[in-house]
């Protein structure tokens, strides 16, 4: 009996080896869905796809920079995260609607990790290492075909977590919104609220004007378009592009305010309001994230929250759009794509990326 089983095993191994030259190309072909849909791509779709791309870009530029600030990183890292992972995802993803990049939840968790590892690693190193490891773990889950586990995770948990994260982000950004200085927005929300109220007399009124007016303007534009622009694409574009439009208007006004402003010894303008100043142009040179064994053992337990949020947010949003548009996504393939996107992005200054509901919704 044992000899027969051994012969059967040997035959199976032999057949696998013989079939290897055919199975490897087939496996690669299946792992890159772009090889299936690109030959069938209709050139007439290009205009609509270009409009969708421009639409998302109008949102992701100000949004990416804002999320980067939430994560405790320089603003350019939000831009790196917004498009490097997305470029790679288009080769391996199975969702035709999903846009990946930085999100509010991931930014908030990254900020906590940056704060916890302060002094041991720079924020950029924390972002790169967490992005690499989360990507590697996600890729491994997809490779081992463990995506079925996600079917048993309750959506209510993710909804509750996302809602809590949104409230936390709103409170943490409150001091900057109204120009209050000297408040540590990494403190617990109730402490941030207390310290903000306590330091209100020291608020920079010009910062408050910019922040509050921009905030109100964004809300009013959205409400106005929802009321009077339903079904009209040209008017809907006003709502979609309002983030970018308000950012451009604020930048122009800020520039006009600082014409003729004095400069310091370094030649930098002495700003009357809080401004970003210099944002590096172009991509950073590829950098291998500084992963050591000590760092690995220290940071891995803290990555569970980011890993869960990255995977669950991505799959939940992907499935929602798939149901809406009557197609299916492959969970394991999505994990492979998301993992590969994060691993790649980690070498270019990005932090963890996942599916974004807001940016995906505007292009559908």
TrEMBL record:
It is a multi-pass membrane protein. Keywords: Membrane, Transmembrane, Transmembrane helix. The chain crosses the membrane at residues 45-61, 98-114, 126-150, 208-228, 240-261, 295-315, 335-357. Residues 48-363 form the SLC26A/SulP transporter domain. The keyword Membrane applies. It is found in: Membrane. GO terms for cellular component: membrane. InterPro entries: SLC26A/SulP_dom, SLC26A/SulP_fam. The keyword Nucleotide-binding does not apply. Its main location: membrane. It comes from the Eukaryota. GO terms for biological process: transmembrane transport. PANTHER family: SULFATE TRANSPORTER (PTHR11814). This is SLC26A/SulP transporter domain-containing protein. It comes from Actinomortierella ambigua.
């Amino acid at each position: 009996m044992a000899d027969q089983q051994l012969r059967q095993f040997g035959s199976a191994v032999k057949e696998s080896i013989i079939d290897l030259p055919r199975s490897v190309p087939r496996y690669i072909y299946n792992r890159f869905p772009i090889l299936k849909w690109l030959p069938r791509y209709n050139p007439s779709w290009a205009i609509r796809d270009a409009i969708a791309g421009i639409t998302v870009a109008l949102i992701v530029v100000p949004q990416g920079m804002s999320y980067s600030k939430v994560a405790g990183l320089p603003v350019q890292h939000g831009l790196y995260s917004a498009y490097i992972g997305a470029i790679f995802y288009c080769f391996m993803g199975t969702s035709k609607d999903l846009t990946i990049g930085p999100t509010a939840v991931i930014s908030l968790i990254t900020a906590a990790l940056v704060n916890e590892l302060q002094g041991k690693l720079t924020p950029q190193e924390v972002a790169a290492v967490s992005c690499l490891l989360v990507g590697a773990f996600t890729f491994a889950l997809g490779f081992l075909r463990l995506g079925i586990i996600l079917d048993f995770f309750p959506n209510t948990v993710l909804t509750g977590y996302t809602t809590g994260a949104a409230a936390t982000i709103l409170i943490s950004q409150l001091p900057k919104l109204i120009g209050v200085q000297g408040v540590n927005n990494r403190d617990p929300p109730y402490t941030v609220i207390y310290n903000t109220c306590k330091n209100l007399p020291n608020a920079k009124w010009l910062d408050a004007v910019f922040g509050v007016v921009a905030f109100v303007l964004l809300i009013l534009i959205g409400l106005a378009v929802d009321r009077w622009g339903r079904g009209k694409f040209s008017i809907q574009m006003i709502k979609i592009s309002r983030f970018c439009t308000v950012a451009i208007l604020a930048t122009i006004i800020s520039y006009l305010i600082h014409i003729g402003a004095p400069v310091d010894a370094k030649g930098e303008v002495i700003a009357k309001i809080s401004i970003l100043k210099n944002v590096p142009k172009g991509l950073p040179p590829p950098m291998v994230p500084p992963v050591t064994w000590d760092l690995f053992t220290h940071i891995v337990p803290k990555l569970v929250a980011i890993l869960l949020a990255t995977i669950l947010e991505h799959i939940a949003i992907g499935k929602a759009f798939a149901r809406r548009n009557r197609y299916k996504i492959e969970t394991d393939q999505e994990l492979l794509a998301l993992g590969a996107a994060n691993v790649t992005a980690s070498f270019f200054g990005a932090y963890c990326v996942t599916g974004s509901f807001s940016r995906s919704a505007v292009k559908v």
